[in-house]
Amino acid sequence: MSSNDVTHHAADDHNHDHGDDHGHHGPAPGLMRWVTTTNHKDIGTLYLWFSLVMFFIGGAMALVIRAELFQPGIQIVDPMFFNSMTTMHAIVMIFGVVMPAFVGLANWMIPMMIGAPDMALPRLNNWSFWIMPFAFTIMLSTLFMDSGGPAGGWTLYPPLVLQMGDSFAFVIFAIHFLGISSVMGSINIVATIFNMRAPGMTFMKMPMFVWTWLITAYLLIATIPVFAGAVTMLLTDRYFGTSFFSAAGGGDPVMFQHIFWFFGHPEVYILILPAFGIVSSIIPTFARKELFGYDSMVYATASIAFLSFIVWAHHMFTTGMPLAGELFFMFSTMLISVPTGVKVFNWVATMWRGAMTFETPMLFAIGFVIMFTVGGLSGLMLAITPADIQYHDTYFVVAHFHYVLVPGAIYSLMAATYYWLPKWTGNMYDEKLGKMHFWISTIFVNVLFFPMHFVGLAGMPRRIPDYSLQFADWNMIATIGAFGFGFSQLMFVYIIVKCVRGGEKATAEVWEGARGLEWTVASPAPYHTFETAPTIEPSTVTR
Amino acid sequence: MSTAATGYYVPHDARWPIVGSIGLFIFFFGFASWLNDGAFGKEMFFIGMAITIFMMFGWFGLVAKESEAGTYSPQVDASFRLCMMWFIFSEVMFFAAFFGALFYARTFSGPWLGGLGGGGAEMTNAVLHTGHDYVWPSNGPGDVGGKFVPMGWFGLPLINTLLLLSSGVTCTLAHHAIRAGHRKPFILWLLATVTLGFIFMGLQIEEYIHAYSALNLKLTSGIYGSTFFLLTGFHGFHVTMGAVILLVVAIRAMRNHFSAENHFAFEAAAWYWHFVDVVWLGLFIFVYLF
Ligand SMILES: [Cu+2]
After folding, report:
1. Could you give the angle at the alpha carbon of B23 between the alpha carbons of A240 and A28, nearest 5°?
2. Does the structure show a pLDDT above 50 at A273?
3. Nearest-CB residue to B113 (from A28, A121, A250)
4. What is the mean predicted confidence (pLDDT) over A517-528?
């Protein structure tokens, strides 16, 4: 081990090609390269491939759910398995797809965006990733145990979740394990952004993606330990005879919901703030304009993060709470639409009178703005306590959070992939296939989720494998949309693989209107970038 | 090779993380099996724990060696500092969950079970928990775990408070000593801190034995027992960790590892120790006193 191998160069003259790879420290050969790597680009790649694989595992679970709901009655799977599919689908998509994919993007892009040689703590970075496959092995192994996987919903409400079989303990420890990974990954990102910025890269010169990740990392460090505490209490209630969530012993099952959602609501911003950052990078590029209202974007992100800590009980309007509590959480929740509205306004204003072109990343970004707003508006409806009492636990809620997560978070990930793929691989992806992927996905995603608004408002409950006859038509349509959307994602894989293997060579700048340091290095980005920090002048365009 | 690093050190070829992942995987899998009386659960639990501890010694040992070789620039040092600060913040939030449970039970759910606080509480109490009056410490309307005597604040808890507070003082004295470059007093104050920590743990164990044998106060004694033992238990675990870390720092100090300028390993341990101290004060006030 070359422990004293300091990457140290004499400050070279300031030339604008910062991609100076002097031919040493290339990737190690063989499979062990990926196991022992400390390179932020390698680790980013690992995260991204991992989440792509998990995307199809979680997607297959969703298709089991939709297949069962194709027609009323119990058709394909038994109700217990159906419930464990809804539970696992959520756990996989949240902790195995969206979060690791964002961390992967953070790994790849943040050091390049702020002019750093690597992440602040490269070994810790390796560990954060290499926990994921092991933790998900524990999580997914529960599906093959006698008692089946967790079936009480990803929110793990007691007393229901305490009634599940032996696999319960495995689920809890898998969550602890994943939590260790998230917290370490976030600490690394915070340390990188605070400590590794190139000279002259002030906070207000950072790209929005870096800002949103800084705030996301803070949310993660603040809430994942609370989640760990909550599931620890579940564990001791189940195996060690404590009474946290049992009224007989003076505890309260509702208390779990409070602690859980204190984590759970900031968690939904963890799933969307980096998406805001991605879209804020892409739209200026293809509108060939500076991001409108950068400062207000930063403040809006910070306000959303602050508000996310004082709105949690909007998930519990029907569980029982003093009236003052219901009112407080209703108003604080509605307040979030103000900073979110600022963001949507800024994206639209950035496009206003821009010299717009519509390459695939831009299509996904615009799709994000429109369809995320649809999900945001149904969220506003759900925030109103008296209305929520009607909507609670119906498919309307399912429609709401899938609109913000699928054409929201997932679309931002696809936009990011198309946007940075030429930088990662050095090749352009197939633009025609990319556009086709966008349009097919967008049609099917709406066929899939829009009908859920109707059946939800009409009263169809979520998490039930059967439903009453009047919901049959729309459910059939939603299932067709689900299979269409699911299988069209094979195109995404095909386009990525094709791009990795070859294609039209990309320039360093890749996009005509691209802004920021990552576009000053060669494509593909050299294994090491910015080993000598670039000098950022006040006039340098960094965002 | 180099003694005063200027570039940012990016290590290569990290082997300890994968060892840690395998160790924790075996540990968690074994623990879960053990809880369900599964085959080899206990064995896997201990093997996994051993691998994890081995990994920690290996990893921290490597970092210590690199630090001694002068591999780390001030910027690397700043990364370590940020890392430790945010790690402690995450620990604070972990304890916040348990304090939150305590406050919620005492301010909301406890009184509601006793029929106080309006809404439907009175009716629920009359129908479901007839005759149950809420008084803290409580083990609920079911009298879960049977009659118990709550842990008073006088005696062992008070002595423990004084012990931990004085260990905070000795820790600070150690810091002053190393900053002045006095190695011997540094080591002595460190060892004093470690000793106070271990005495604290001994008394804590004594207190638990007393609770179980004389007071009938158990982990199963309703919400009071649950919050009491989980809060003090997790705190005790952290004290043990902190004392072991300080002990390792003391051993490194004896091997002449630290200088007046370069002693972050000690500072990180000291921050951790003060954090553990502050958590105890919260415990003493909200678990024991009131
Ligand atoms: Cu929420």
Report:
1. 150
2. yes
3. A250
4. 93
- All residues of chain B having their beta carbon less than 8 Å from the beta carbon of residue A116 are 8
Percent of chain A with pLDDT over 90: 90
Domains and CATH numbers, chain B: 1-72 (1.10.287.70), 74-289 (1.20.120.80)
- Buried residues in A340-374 as b, exposed as e (16+ CB within 10 A): bebbbebbebbbeebeeeebbbbbbbbbbbebbbb
Q: Is-contact A135 A174, C-beta < 8 A?
A: yes
What are the pLDDT digits (tens) for A392-435?
Answer: 999 999 999 999 999 999 999 999 999 999 999 999 999 999 99
The domains of chain A, with CATH numbers, are: 36-520 (1.20.210.10)
Is pLDDT above 50 for A18? no
Residue of A nearest to B111 (CA): A250
What interface predicted TM-score (ipTM) does this complex get? 0.94
pLDDT in tens, B51-83: 999 999 999 999 999 988 888 988 999 999 999
In the block, tokens 């896997």 appear at: B44
CB count within 10 Å of CB A188 equals 30
- In this complex, the residue of A6, A183, A320 whose CB is nearest that of residue B7 is A6
Angle between helices A411-425 and A472-501 (to 10 degrees): 10
pTM comes to: 0.93
pLDDT tens, A103-140? 999 999 999 999 999 999 999 999 999 999 999 999 99
A vs B: CB pairs below 8 A: 263
- Judge whether A250 is closer than 8 Å to chain B, CB to CB: yes
DSSP secondary structure letters along A283-347 = HHHHHTSPPTTHHHHHHHHHHHHHHGGG-GGGG-TTT---HHHHHHHHHHHHHTHHHHHHHHHHH
Residue A170: count of CB within 10 angstroms of its CB = 26
With beta carbons under 8 A apart, name residues in chain A contacting B121. Answer: none
What is the set of active-site residues of A? 89, 118, 154, 181-182, 265, 267, 269, 280, 314-315, 340, 343, 462
Binary contact (A251, B8; C-beta < 8 A): no
What is d(CA B85, CA B96) in angstroms, rounded to the nearest whole number?
17
> Of all helices (H) and strands (E), which one includes residue A379?
helix A360-383
Q: Which residue has the higher pLDDT, A5 or A199?
A: A199
Residue pLDDT, tens place only, B239-290: 999 999 999 999 999 998 898 888 999 999 999 999 999 999 999 999 998 8
Per-residue b or e along A483-507, where b marks 16 or more CB atoms closer than 10 Å to that residue's CB: bbbbebbebbeebbeebeeebeebe
N residues, chain B: 290
Distance, CA of A354 to CA of B128 (rounded, Å): 66
| Model pLDDT, residue A25 | 60
What CA–CA distance (Å, rounded) separates B146 from B257?
54
Which residue in A401, A444, A427 sits closest to A498, CA to CA? Answer: A427
